Structure formats: C-alpha cells, structure tokens
Amino acid sequence: MRRWFEGRSHTWAEFVERGVPADWLRATGDAMAIRVAEEADKAQRAAGQHEMLVLSEAKDARSAQKEQAG
User: Fold this and answer.
1) CB under 8 Å to 56, separation ≥6 — which residues?
2) What's the CA gap between 7 and 70, in Å, rounded?
3) pLDDT by residue (tens digit) across 33-67?
4) How much is the CA Rg of the chain, to the nearest whole Å?
C-alpha cells in the first residue's frame, strides 16, 4: 500500500492517520481503489455517516484493540 501512494496527492501517513476522500480514490482510476471507496461508502451509509472518508484498516484495528483492552 505504501508504494501505491508514492507520487500521489495523498500520503500513506495521511491515509493511516485520517483517511482519504472516497472521491479521490475513485478519481485515481485504480480498480482496487474504486472498490475500497465503494465499500467505505456502503459502511458509512449503514452507520449513518455523511462524510466520505476511507479510513485505513490499521487505524480500525488499533481502535478495536483499544476497546478490547478496555
């Protein structure tokens, strides 16, 4: 994934820390990025969120670990 972000307008670090806009992922034209954006949109609609950001799996995993550690 890190290599995929090289030379693009968003960085790997930004993706991990804050996520990136789903529209930006679609605009790359990359089939996998488009699929990630679609899945994020579905998940966010199901959760009632309106802001379209794609959060990294790493951040989600850290959050889940913190909740379990309680």
Assistant:
1) 15, 16, 19
2) 39
3) 999 899 988 888 888 765 556 665 545 555 655 66
4) 13
